[in-house]
Amino acid sequence: MPLPHRRSAPVDWLIVGLGNPGAAYDGTPHNIGFEVAERLRSRWGLGKPRDRFRALISDGRAGAGGPRVALLMPQTYMNDAGRAVGPARGELRVEPDHVIVVHDEIDLPFAEVRTRLGGGLAGHNGLKSVRAALGTAEFRRVRVGVGRPASTDPDEVAAFVLGRFVQPRAEVQALIDAAADATERLLAEAPGQLLK
After folding, report:
1. pLDDT tens for residues 125-149?
2. Given 30, 98, 103, 124, which residue is catalytic?
3. How far apart are CA 113 and CA 53, in angstroms?
4. Which residue segments constitute the domains of the chain, with CATH numbers given?
5. Model's pTM, two decimal places?
6. Rounded CA separation 179/183 (Å)
7. Using CA atoms, how far apart are residues 103 and 115, in angstroms rounded to an integer?
């Protein structure tokens, strides 16, 4: 069922997978949010994404009898993701604490997934853009651990997150599944009861 173009048709949750558009970024740690969004779209049987809000968006139910969700993959590049998230949130009338952003997290070891509501942004430019667009940092996050390089040099960190995963693809797929599972648990829990 397509997203209605009327402001009177809200969804329960807006789930945002962060990444960069284009084949050059496929399979990189920075695009793990896109991969998790695609995994959720497949699990839930959502339709082919449509171009809207400077993003690709699908909507429907998160599983049989689940909440109504909109799944958004901004096509603005990571650092400007808020330019897609802000308009989508506004038109879909989703409160910031019902926005879930799935993103790479270099401060977590590879394969670790954590969720949280609000908190610091740890220098993540995609999160900074979303915070600016929402006017608050009190949105939910699925932090997908991709590890970090030995150096803190910004150029080396950028090369790390924009390079290919060094882990075997099977391990990356398991990480995508774990992050998708964590997102589904967030949807199943009562507001305010986040996973530790």
Report:
1. 888 999 999 999 999 999 999 998 8
2. 30
3. 28
4. 13-188 (3.40.50.1470)
5. 0.88
6. 6
7. 11
